Every structure is written in C-alpha cells, then in structure tokens.
C-alpha cells in the first residue's frame, strides 16, 4: 500500500509540474493579450453610405457652391468688360496721338516748302505789297489757332467714337452660364 501511495504521490507531483509548466506557458502567451487586442481591433476608416444619401449631399454641396461660382463668374465678366473698355480707350488714345503726330509732321514737312514759298513771296513783297511784322505775327497766331481747333475737333470726334463703342458694349447682353444638375 505504501508502494501504491508512493505511485499516487509521484503521479500527483508530475501532474503538478506539468500544470506549472502549462500555467507558465499560458502566462507568457496571454501576458501580451491587451496589446494584441488593441492591435487586432478593427477601426472603420471609411463608412459606406447609401446612394440617395450621396446624391442628397452632392445637391446640398452644389446649392452652396453655385451662388459663389455665379458671383465669381460675374466678377470675371465685369473685369473682362472693364479691360476691354480700357483697351478700346487706349486704342483711341493711340489713334488720337497718331493723328496729332501726323498733324504736326505734315505742317513741319510743308513748313519747309512754305518757308521757301514764303521767302519767294517775301522777295516779291519787296517788289509789290508786303506784310508788316505785326501782320505776319497775326497770321501765324491765326494758323496756330486753326491747328488747335482742328486738333480739338479731331479729339472730340475720337472721343465720340469711343463713347459709341462703350455704349454698344454696355448694351450687349451678357452671356449666361448654365450648370448641369448632374455630376
């Protein structure tokens, strides 16, 4: 019986050692369980939504964006019209300046001829009726006045043409922009 009791005790000791080793193995295996549970936890980064919800969100976004886009397009259109009017104004100024330049070049070119003709007439005037210094000054002033007045008339004509262009531009109907309600 002692022999049978010793067998039970040794069997119990071997079972306890086996149980201790199993506990230590399990302990080392579950020791990292909280970290593993966090690592293995699934996180939903993207949520799936239904198609009607998607269309509703798109329409809401479109209704928010459309007025701003319309406003920006109107501002761009106004700015482009302003730039076009400025361009027309600069073109008119350029034409006016070219007219002035041509007007001043023409008398300068003809003044050489006129001075030659004037010297001839002065030589003839010595023979016949000549102009006094005061009369020559008066004639020169009248010619300058005539040139100034013709310049003013040309300038007013160009300004009138420019105003007519601006009026035509302002009377033109602005182009309407359309949007598609669908994406």
TrEMBL record:
Region (Disordered): 106-129
UniProt subcellular location: Chromosome, Centromere, Kinetochore; Cytoplasm, Cytoskeleton, Spindle; Nucleus
GO cellular component: DASH complex; spindle microtubule
Protein keywords: Centromere, Chromosome, Cytoplasm, Cytoskeleton, Kinetochore, Nucleus
Name the UniProt record assigns to this protein: DASH complex subunit SPC19
One Gene Ontology biological process: attachment of spindle microtubules to kinetochore
Keyword RNA-binding: no
Family to which this protein belongs: Belongs to the DASH complex SPC19 family.
Protein origin, superkingdom: Eukaryota
Annotated Low complexity bias: 108-126
Pfam family for this entry, one: DASH_Spc19
């Amino acid at each position: 019986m002692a022999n049978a009791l010793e067998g039970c005790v040794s069997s119990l000791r071997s079972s306890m050692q086996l149980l201790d080793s199993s506990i230590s193995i399990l302990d080392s295996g579950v020791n990292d369980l909280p970290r593993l549970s966090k690592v293995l936890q699934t996180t939903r980064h993207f949520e799936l939504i239904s198609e009607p919800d998607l269309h509703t969100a798109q329409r809401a976004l479109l209704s928010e964006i459309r007025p701003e886009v319309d406003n920006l397009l109107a501002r761009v259109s106004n700015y482009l019209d302003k730039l076009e009017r400025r361009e027309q104004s600069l073109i008119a100024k350029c034409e006016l300046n070219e007219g002035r330049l041509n007007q001043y070049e023409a008398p300068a070119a003809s003044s050489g001829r006129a001075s030659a003709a004037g010297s001839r007439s002065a030589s003839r005037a010595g023979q016949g009726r000549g102009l006094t210094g005061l009369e020559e000054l008066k004639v020169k002033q009248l010619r300058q006045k005539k040139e100034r007045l013709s310049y003013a008339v040309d300038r007013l004509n160009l300004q009138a043409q420019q105003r007519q262009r601006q009026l035509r531009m302002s009377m033109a109907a602005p182009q309407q922009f359309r949007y598609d309600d669908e994406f």
